[in-house]
Structure formats: C-alpha cells, structure tokens
Design goal:
The chain has 319 residues and is of the alpha+beta class. It has 11 helices and 13 strands. The chain has a single domain, classed as Jelly Rolls. It has helices at 2-36, 40-46, 50-57, 79-89, 99-111, 129-136, 153-159, 162-172, 193-198, 242-245, 254-261, and strands at residues 91-96, 114-116, 123-124, 142-144, 177-186, 204-205, 214-219, 230-233, 251-252, 266-269, 275-279, 285-286, 295-303. A hairpin with a 6-residue loop joins strand 2 (114-116) and strand 3 (123-124). The longest helix is centred in the first third of the chain and has 35 residues, at 2-36. The structure holds 2-oxoglutaric acid.
Length: 319
C-alpha cells in the first residue's frame, strides 16, 4: 500500500515537473508576444475563462452583408445552418471540396517540398518521407508547406471562398478576419511526446491565439481511423471546468476531458478526400498520430484581433 502511494507520489511529482517544463519553454515566446502587442496579455490571461470570453463576445458587431448570394464552391450549404451548429456544438461537419480543387491541392502538396517538424532545415518531398527520416536519423511527424501553400491557386480559391468568410462573420462578428492558411502532412512514425505536443497531436487542447477564433479544416486524402483523424469534443466551446479555466496550460489528459463532457461528445472526424468541417477551436480538440498512411490537411483560420507576426505553425500571416 505504502509502495503504491509512494509511486503515485513520484508520478505526480514527475507529471507536475513535466507541466512546469511545458510552461517554462513557452515563456520566451510569451514575452515576445507581449512586446509585439501588449493587448495580447489580457487575451492570454482572460480568454481562457468563460466570463472573460462572454464579456468579449458582447463586442461582436453584427455583420450586414449577405455573402450567401455570392457564388461559392460549397454548393447547397447555407451559412446560417453552419453557424447554428457552431453555436450549439462548436462544430459543423459536412463541407465538401469539389474534386478538382482537392486533387489539385494534393498534387501540389506531393510535388512541392515541405518542412519536417516545423524545421526549415528538414526540407523534403512527402513521398520521400522514409528516406528523409533515415537521412536525419529521427522521426519526422509533420511536413508543413508554410508560405509555399499560397503558390497553389486551389488553396487560394478555398481561402477566398465567400462561404468561409460569411460563416466567420456571422459567428465571430463583423470584425472577423482571415489569419491563417496552411497545408501540412502528418506522417505515421514513432514520435516523442514533445514532437506530438508540438504538432498538436494525441492531446486534447484548446487554441488560445485570439479571443474568438474559427478554424476550417479539409482533408485532402481519404482519412479513416488509421490516418490520424481529427477529434473534437462537442459542447466544450462554451462549457469549461473551473480547473481548466484557471491554469496556464491548454492541454489536458483525455480522462479529465471525457469524464466532464461525456465520451459520446468526442467526435472522431473521418471522411473522403475533400471532406471538410469547421470548429470553434476554444472547444477541446486534437489530431491523432497517423498509423497506416499520411494525412494531408488544409486549415483556414479566422480571428478578430490583429494577428501576431509569430504564427505558431510558421504559416504566412495575412494582413
Ligand atoms: O492536426 C490536427 O488534426 C489538429 C490541429 C490542431 O489541433 C490545431 O490546429 O489546433
């Protein structure tokens, strides 16, 4: 009995040490963010609390345009239906990219070198992932195209589609603006916990880059249980344990999340190439590590504040 409680004590010390380390490594980035934009600090401290968010939401301006009248590649999707689902669940799944668009982006992503593990020194073509790992002698979990994504006309067409901006304005308010566009590979590999955490994989977390955000995701290859599907916890965008509001950490153990929201609310999003969904990333979500085949994904993100020059994923900042 004594042995068990002692080993539990040691585990808890190790866990807390891990948490402190995770917070400590981010301090230089936080300081750079405050220096660049002092308004970042109140956001960073208060946007994780439900009252702070609700207060900020009161500043949302009503949009007056009707972008549903503009031609969109997402035929038959009404922005109001998407927004209703986002408000209720934090998630709408059911967007479909035209075949020509997702095939063009996938071709571009296979033929354009990407950067492994967010490191610009590891540059390779996705089909050469195995050789590249062997050459560098380390697992390569992700391959980002960074600013090169914007050389692909099909990427720009998705980014500029009027449905995306209409949904963003109706959900976030008239201040909504495009902040990120990225395409990236997630490769099956044996990655360390630190690499997985950097790639937002295998740990429920929420995003805290702005007071109010929205992220559109599109699969560019078929994604099943073995291809690293994205997971979202429905309803977690507007309900939060006090404990998870009063900590600087954004990632939490699956047990704590599933106990609070119920396992049935964790939706694993699988779908064919072209399948898309949109989520409020204040809700808990995560990617999972691909087991059998690489996943290629596109993200278009919206926020309401001046985007910081530093983007976590190194993608271009749209001004
Ligand atoms: O790769 C994924 O599915 C998750 C991405 C993610 O967590 C994020 O963009 O915040």
């Amino acid at each position: 009995m004594h042995g068990i409680s002692r080993s539990n004590d040691l585990e808890s010390v190790a866990r807390k040490g891990g948490k402190l380390r995770r917070m400590a490594v981010r301090i230089p980035t936080y300081l750079a963010d405050v220096r660049e934009n002092p308004a970042w600090l109140p956001m960073f401290l208060l946007a994780r609390t439900i009252p702070g968010r609700r207060a900020h939401w009161l500043a949302a301006k009503q949009p007056h345009d009707n972008a549903d009248l503009l031609p969109s590649m997402f035929e038959g999707i009404e922005s109001a239906a998407v927004v209703d689902s986002l408000k209720a669940e934090g998630l709408f799944s059911g967007l479909v990219l035209p075949d020509a668009i997702h095939r063009e982006i996938a071709r571009f992503a296979s033929e354009t070198p990407c950067f492994g593990n967010f490191d610009r020194r590891i540059e390779f073509l996705a089909p050469q992932h195995g050789d590249t790992e062997a050459r560098h002698g380390r697992p390569i979990l992700s391959g980002h195209h960074f600013e090169r994504a914007l050389d692909c006309e099909a990427v720009l067409a998705v980014q500029r589609d009027p449905l995306l901006s209409a949904v963003a304005r109706q959900y976030l308010g008239a201040q909504a603006q495009l902040i990120t566009t990225r395409i990236w590979w997630s490769f099956p590999t044996k990655a360390s916990e630190a690499d997985r955490s950097l790639a937002s994989l295998d740990k429920y977390h929420f995003d805290l880059d702005d007071w109010r955000m929205l992220k559109f995701f599109f699969y560019l290859v078929d994604v099943d249980e073995n291809t690293g599907p994205h997971v979202y916890v429905k309803g977690s965008h507007n309900r939060r344990r006090l404990k998870h509001q009063l900590t600087l950490l954004v990632g939490h153990p699956a047990g704590e999340i599933l106990d609070f929201y119920g396992p049935d609310n964790a939706v694993t999003l699988t779908g064919k190439a072209g399948h898309g969904f949109v989520e409020d990333p204040f809700g808990f979500h995560m990617g999972t590590v691909a087991k059998a085949a690489p996943r290629l994904m596109m993200e278009v993100g919206f926020g309401v504040s001046k985007p910081s020059r530093r983007r976590f994923h190194g993608e271009p900042v749209i001004r």
